[in-house]
Design brief:
6 helices; alpha+beta; 3-stranded antiparallel beta sheet; 7-stranded mixed beta sheet
């Protein structure tokens, strides 16, 4: 019992440091509450996990074998007592390229009751989509690394054709699978996906495919559940003891099956060896008989060889003589071929040079023709305008003449002196009109002739261009024919000298035609700068007249080299007409 004084002192201490006392009380309460929560949460978590395992029928034992499980192994496993469910399955590892990185994927077969005992085990939980129904479809785990890669419904997964040292086709029928759903498997409840012997050794994710997509002769996995443990917690000691006992049993069975499997492999190999030995003995007996026959044939063959050797030496001597003669003929043919090739190359080079010179001269004359034609086209409207003005002046002069004739007719009754002066003036105007009309007609004729000469010169240029093009085509054809003959002669290596093509006849014809046609004189056209005038005057009552004079230029003859000689271009480029008017007083 506390004394009254102690109790009173304690209360005073609490009241004096109430904040500290309250803090201590709160800390103690939090600690007790956290401890009670942890103690009560662990059993609940274990219970939830055990319920999840039971709902998905998670296996109790997973059997693996480096050689796989054949039919005898599966029968031996099923024969063991104390197991409710036995489900053989397939699995393999593959490599996939995703976002530029190589990742290892564990490929599992969907749970199936084929060759199984009891229920399907390790049933996946479908989160979205559907389970595979056809070959080439797959479901992918939902908890993939989103930073590294992410799958979408309808996406096609493609694995690399090589998985380590083995081809993927040895394990799977196809390397492409379409994603039809997302799942979670009770086999993988942590972040770790296990290890692999390919790639970087770490498995990044897993997928499940139909069993028929596997191409393996034996099962790779066997899943089992121990009888009587369905309602037992997987985290209890009893469960662990029962599983340990089952593991010991299968370790003994594994050793037994390994010895049996080894014996089977040895027996199969020995059977193949025995068959091969029997075939070898039979072949040796057959070979002994064949050897005797072969020995007799060998002796006969040796006699034939000796005779053939003598014949061969005789033919060899004859062949050497033919070879020596052939070498001489070949050397002579090669020398002739080399000389012919040099002649051919020289002729082709000369023809190309001459043709290029002719082409250059043509382009030069063509440019000069185009320039002067442009000048003609530029000055032609001015010339036509001046001719029209001159025609108008002549018409005006004709009107004046008509007017004077009317006046003279009306004044015939006047004095003779007056009538005689007007008659002289009328005659002068008529003479001026006749001279102006004659000159105007002459200039019109010159202008028309200049246009005809330009057309003729353009036609000559086009003909020369066509002939040059034909010459180039013929030269190219001659080059190909000559080269073909050279190659043929070189291949046959004979002493027959090829008949090389000469310069194209069309080039010579083009040059001859050009020389003949280009001798035609160029058109005589007016040239700008003519400024001579006429001395005749118009009557004072009329406007001043304009007189015209045209100068006919001369062009120096030009020449160019053609493949067959020098062609004279003559006046192939016409001068361009131009005119300038000078008014008279």
């Amino acid at each position: 019992m506390f004394s009254r004084a102690l109790l009173k002192d304690t209360l005073r201490e609490i009241l004096g440091t109430f904040n500290r006392f309250f803090s201590i009380i709160v800390i103690i309460a939090l600690g007790v509450g956290f401890f009670m929560g942890v103690k009560s949460t662990a059993p609940d978590m274990k219970l939830t996990a055990d319920k999840y395992f039971d709902e998905t029928r998670l296996m109790d034992i997973h059997l693996l074998s480096t050689m796989g499980f054949d039919e005898e192994d599966i029968k031996a496993i099923k024969a063991q007592q104390g197991f409710d469910n036995v489900m053989p399955s397939y699995s393999t590892d593959a490599i996939m390229e995703k976002n530029g990185a190589s990742v290892v994927v564990r490929v599992l077969s969907l749970p199936d009751t084929k060759d199984s005992v009891g229920e399907k085990l390790n049933n996946p939980i479908l989160l979205s989509g559907r389970l595979p129904e056809n070959p080439g479809e797959c479901v992918v785990e939902e908890n993939t690394d989103q930073k590294l890669f992410k799958f979408e419904l309808g996406e096609t997964i493609e694995f690399e054709p090589q998985a380590g040292d083995m081809a993927l086709s040895d394990s799977l029928d196809t390397n492409k699978f379409k994603v039809v759903g997302f799942i979670n498997s009770p086999q993988y409840i942590s972040l770790e996906r296990g290890a692999s012997n390919i790639g970087d050794g770490s498995i990044s994710c897993y997928i499940m495919i139909p069993r028929q997509d596997f191409n393996l002769p034996v099962y790779t996995d066997v899943y089992l559940t121990v009888r009587g443990l369905k309602d037992v917690s997987a985290f209890g000691q009893y469960y662990g003891a029962q599983i340990a006992e089952a593991v010991r049993l299968f370790e003994e069975l594994g050793q037994e099956r390994a010895n049996a499997r080894y014996g089977k492999i040895i027996n199969d190999a020995q059977a193949k060896i025995d068959v091969a030995k029997a075939e070898l003995e039979k072949a040796e007996n057959d070979t002994g008989n064949q050897l005797s026959d072969a020995l007799a044939r060998l002796k006969a063959g040796q006699a034939q060889i000796a005779q053939a050797e003598a014949d061969k030496n005789k033919r060899l001597a004859q062949s050497r003589e033919q070879i020596d003669q052939g070498k001489k003929d070949l050397e002579k043919a090669e020398a002739d071929l080399e000389k012919a090739e040099k002649d051919y190359n020289k002729q082709i080079a000369d023809g190309e040079a001459e043709l290029a010179a002719g082409r250059a001269e043509y382009e030069k004359n063509k440019a000069e023709y185009d320039k002067q034609k442009a000048e003609f086209d530029a000055t032609k409207p001015e010339a036509e305008r001046q001719i029209a003005e001159a025609q108008a002046q002549l018409d005006q002069l004709n009107n004046q003449i008509t007017y004077l004739e009317i006046i003279i007719s009306n004044m015939q009754e006047s004095g003779i002196a007056v009538l005689q002066g007007m008659t002289d003036q009328l005659n002068t105007l008529k003479q001026q009109y006749a001279d102006g009309q004659a000159q105007l007609n002459a200039e019109k004729a010159k202008l028309a002739k200049a246009e005809r000469d330009l057309a003729a010169a353009d036609k000559q240029l086009k003909q020369a261009k066509a002939q040059l093009d034909q010459g180039e085509a013929d030269l190219e054809k001659s080059k190909k024919e000559g080269r073909a003959q050279l190659d043929d002669a070189r291949g046959r290596s004979t002493n027959q000298r090829p008949s090389w093509p000469r310069r194209s006849g069309s080039i010579r014809r083009a040059c001859a035609t050009h020389s003949t046609s280009s001798t035609t004189p160029g058109p005589t056209l007016p040239k700008a700068g003519a400024n001579t005038t006429r001395a005749n005057r118009m009557p004072s009552s009329s406007s001043p007249t304009r007189a015209y004079r045209y100068r006919t230029p001369r062009w120096p003859s030009r020449s160019f080299k053609s493949p067959s000689g020098t062609c004279r271009a003559g006046r192939i480029t016409p001068a361009i007409p131009s005119m300038r008017t000078t008014p008279t007083a």
